[in-house]
């Protein structure tokens, strides 16, 4: 997408401005003259923030939000008790997630510790906490973008120099689309920022109010944009990127080609009403379960696959109208009305992001986890976050960043 993207959406079919990089991945690190910490030093990456994707946060179905909304009608004592309970659960939910999911599709404490061991003292590693709700809708991803904005704000005045120092944002699945919204906030002009905040209204409470005030006086592009290296993993093709809102952008996609003559193509995630079309081959259930063509979730979770929030549906719809205004067909609110539109989008087999460097990675089969073969976990969507693959992914990512920086 261009500079001054103004929250424009990527289109279907999606076409990458840069040719993709292909990687046949093994867990063993290739021989390298420079260890990872020294490479991070050369890139001036001082901090890295790990951000999980959809359904891995404290309120994936919006039930805590619904409970808090219901409590507003109760006497003060009951309301206070409910709010205290939901806040306590929200602050401790990552422990439950770590226990249930481990490192499959999740940046667990073990992943953070392993990441820190790899980087040494060159880079400080943390995961976003308090985290975003992880609901599958526009407002939840807007919440993530604003949380990231406030996280960046904490660096101002603390000796961090965005012209020299760098930050690595490392996001799985729809966390990458939260990064996309952030890029539009950092790179956008005052009118586009105002349109964004007008659409969300008061739905995000003090978070939205604080972020709006911060950006009201911030220059365009925001100074912190030039410090950001954004790296996404299995992020579905959704929101567009403002190229003034980051320093570099890299997308990792677990991919196995359908046709070696067009290796970037993937079969449609689903075909709705087109099963008899001889020009298209959809994935069967065995293909999906075995990740025969790579990350099925990444190709499935495009525009039209969201779930409506339990609260603030009008604001979510208004934000969706802004974000999808550049699509030829906007997504209807009712799920039953979406089938034909989303089916046509799936048929384009969206795999590559328009902006940034797409890395199409063929992960070799390795160990078996409690969720099945590592490369096939969560239908090919869970391999990116595992401790087993972290060293090689980080090593390869640094190579992409070094090439872009001319090092």
What does this protein structure show overall?
By secondary structure, the protein is of the alpha/beta class. It has one domain (21-63, 98-405). Helix content is 38%, strand content 12%. The chain has 13 helices and nine strands. The strands form two sheets. A seven-stranded parallel beta sheet has the order 1-7-6-5-4-2-3. A hairpin with a 2-residue loop joins β8 and β9 (372-373). α1 (36-43) packs parallel to α13 and α2 (63-71) packs antiparallel against α3. It is globular and about 65 Å long. The two termini are 26 Å apart. The mean pLDDT is 91.
Feature tags:
407 residues; alpha/beta; seven-stranded parallel β-sheet; 13 helices
Number of helices: 13
Structural class: alpha/beta
| Quaternary | single chain
Distance between the termini: 26 Å
Order of helical and strand elements: EHEHHHEHEHHHEEHHHHEEEH
- Per the principal axes of the C-alpha atoms, what is the gross shape? globular
Largest sheet: 7 strands, parallel
- Structural domains: how many: 1
In what range is the share of β-strand residues?
5-15%
Helix content: 25-40%
Low-confidence stretches: none
Number of strands: 9
Largest beta sheet: strand ordering: 1-7-6-5-4-2-3
- Rg over CA atoms, rounded to whole Å, is 21 Å
